[in-house]
Amino acid sequence: MLLTNHVLSGALIGAVVRRPVPAFVLGVASHFALDAVPHWGPFRGRRELLRVAVPDGLTALAAMTALAAAAPSHRRLTLTAAMLGAALPDADKPVQLLFGRSPWPAAVAEFHGRIQDEAPHRFPFEAAVAGASAATAVALLAGARQAPINRSSAV
Questions:
Q1: Model confidence over 19-28: pLDDT tens digits?
Q2: Cβ(41)–Cβ(126) under 8 Å?
């Protein structure tokens, strides 16, 4: 799954969960759930991976920045925590590229690789997920901007 889609799923979580720690944990869990869903990939070699990963990483960072900036101030920390949690498991990719090893324990890295369900013909699905996730996150954040602050919310 593209990193941008992980960030956008984190934004969905951060738009509905009320506290940063549960949002972060749910963001991490969402990463693995999305990676188990059939998605676009795999990439043939380092060059093809970088041709996709660099623009995707920059798009994910731009989306994270724009959504955090657009969020109501009382939701910004939770939203950011969920997006970071959703993106965190893929930190292994740049670390592996730069240092030749995963930052995660072997069991986590093996699990993360094993759950991938990738096929090269699935880019339209990947794009549809991005569009739907972005539109839903923006709508939820717009609603949160208009909703009164309820500091007694449990989650």
A1: 999 999 999 9
A2: no
